Amino acid sequence: MSKVWYLLLLVIISCGIGNKNIKKTKNKNLELYTIVYNINSDSLFVKTSIVFPTSNLVFIKKNNQFEASIETSIRLEEVASGKQIKRISNINKIIKKYYEDTRASDLHELEYQFYLLKGDYKVLVGVKDLDSFNNWTAADNINNSNKNVTLFTYEGDQKKYLIDGALGQDNELWIELSNHLFDSNSYRCSIAKDNTILKSYNISDCIENENSLLECPIDIPNDIFGDITVNIVSALSKKVSLDVYRNKETSLWSSDIDVVLGVMAYILPYSEIKSLYTLSEDEQLSFVLSYIDNKDLDFKTNKNEFLELIKVRFQYVNNNFSEYNTGWKTDRGEVYIVNGPPKSIEVFYDNNKMVNKQIWYYEDRTFMFSDERTMGELKLIKI
How many distinct structural domains can be found in the chain? Predict the structure, then answer.
């Protein structure tokens, strides 16, 4: 009988989240994660994820977007004999809308899934940039010693495992576990923070997925944030603990702290922004929320009018100025967020009837934007 029963290939683009029960093999260019489940007395179900930064790739501009072409490969070997069990190779394209996105610290993830007979295996993976011919590799061992349980969320109908990062405020948390390991259909869950149990309840609505694993929703109260421990105990007192970090809802113009600070850089003096970047993420968020509260235009109302104003302007520039870059990052986006809509705009066109210059008039100042590089992006050239 073949050691490998079958292999599925899924392609996922993500920024993942943290879980101690996922084995990690990492270097600065390529990270390899493996999850192993004992699904019965003689079989393993293995999930292997390859994660790498897209900023290492060469992107070519094609049809008003930027494309990188990569070849990915994965090879399975028996540890004892060194015999190759399976090899898969695929070519994929990664597409970015804006050039700046090609230099961003985004991660791309590829996930492979295997059924194996129990044993010791080695998985070797590689990613090759087909334009620069740079190549990155990683390897890991697979056996049946893992804890058979992990955490995940859904983005739409796509499952996202918690590898490195944080659980968002609005994400529903799920646990995936091997019923064979726990040998039970009854489980109890407790949610703990700082070694104090904040909630404990019986799990009764698990479902069995196509891989013969149980998926169970985890109910974390809305007012619990930061480092959280999820404990799962079976009726036979088998226990496993997993850690997750949950972001606090900011109610700002973005849930991404980098975007929040990017907009604040337009509003705050440089010295304050410089100091802000030396703080922890929680301290940064507290500072921003305090600043926004103090800027409230009318303390008699339930809404913070200053915050609502920034939200409206942020949404407007993203909807209207995102031709070459994300709207809020453009020169026009910065001017609009700080000053609001101009009283009037004078528009100039080139010979191809494309906008190549705009002048924005305010009560006390004027801003001139020009596409001097003919790249489709209006840059601020005069105040």
Answer: 2
